[in-house]
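Sync notes, pocket subgroup
Present: LS, DG
LS reminded everyone that the earlier model was apo-only. Rerun requested with fe (ii) ion included. Inputs:
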Amino acid sequence: MVLPRSRISPFLCVIALLGFWLNAAYFCSGRITSTYVRAEEKSLDMPLDSDVFRVPPGYNAPQQVHITQGDHDGKAVIVSWVTMEEPGSSEVTYWKEHSRKHYYKAKGEVTTYKYYTYSSGYIHHCTIQNLEHNTKYYYQVGTAPTTRTFWFVTPPPVGPDVPYTFGFIGDLGQTFDSNRTLTHYEQNPIKGQAVLFVGDLSYADNHPNHDNNRWDTWARFVERSVAYQPWIWTTGNHEIDFAPEIGETEPFKPFTHRYPTPYRASNSTAPFWYSIKRGPAYIIVLASYSAYGMYTPQYNWLEEELPKVNRRETPWLIVLLHSPWYNSYQYHYMEGESMRVMFEPWFVKYKVDMVFAGHVHAYERSERVSNVAYNIVNGLCQPLSSDQSAPVYITIGDGGNIEGLANSMTEPQPKYSAFREASFGHATLEIKNRTHARYGWHRNQDGFAVEADSMWFHNRFWYPVDDVAATKS
Ligand SMILES: [Fe+2]
């Protein structure tokens, strides 16, 4: 139907004005709740006979191979694996690329544990030290004839302008969605060189009696990535495995037997909080489920740790923890508040660049927000949503585990929340030099190269201009 011109004009004017007004409101607010709505489906754990859980062939074949950084500055690697039939050897044979004849050996150790009616396989840990930077190494585990060979690349020497790319995954679990997340990370053309994992690994505790066989299947599932590049571990609530009803009263028992961390290298006294340097980044891992109040070991450690960070050596200061401090979803709301109260003034004082958390099964990126002025009597109860000394807080607990999406948000979207979306995915951070880093969030429904959210980070020590506002313009 063709309308006479005289009847079109007022109609179009009203529509155009309405559109302009809505657009203006949308962009002027600076806050984005993504309009993308993921179809609601239940996330199911992949069945035990899935190909991703396949046991490698051969008698006593090493399985569940994984690596993490083994020292403070990236010249050591901890190699871990499990043998099922017998202890075998805890030795690792390794050599530099193109130098197979000149191989080295490192001695490791083996451990086991019991959990209710479950008995673990033989869990091996071996630290390889004094590696050269920027070098590809092959390594072999197991005993003849059943050996398996993998490789990794060591990071560049610690320094302010060495490019390095991190991946971020949280709350992964072992569902079909978890598999999509890991595949997207692997296929992402922005190739992550190490994963900063923000806690909640296997979700074995969602199975009857914390079925620890699900710790084994998870480790076989992620081997395809973590045997080749280090994953830096943070503990989440699903690592606690505290179950007095079945006689299990030692918190973190499966995690500590399976996933060592280099905590002693940073003078920590427990494997749950520690730091590493990797290329241009100083990474501090905090423990949401270990004591952090005043006078506790974690509090004392962090108080001494933050002044040690030399931004002229490692410009990028990144903190990992599990329970987010700023979270506008209606899940786990304010669970991170007590830790925020304890540590946020230090994060602002020492100009932390970014804080990554998990726990909430969705994605959110904040403004540079702080709430350090509030002290219960001064009435300043609004967080300051543009504090250029404050970190950006990113929730990346969207790995795709069995508990499903957190898809209910608080309304209206708080001022401090820059972007939020309830979808599964992962993130990448390409550190270019001491001033600039490119950040992107990749939802599983998109192609591998698509960034559903992105931002250029400007370093808080070297270039502390308003980078969140620059991202919007
Ligand atoms: Fe969690």
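DG: The two ends are 40 Å apart (CA to CA).
LS: The CA atoms of residues 12 and 111 lie 74 Å apart.
Action: DG to write up.
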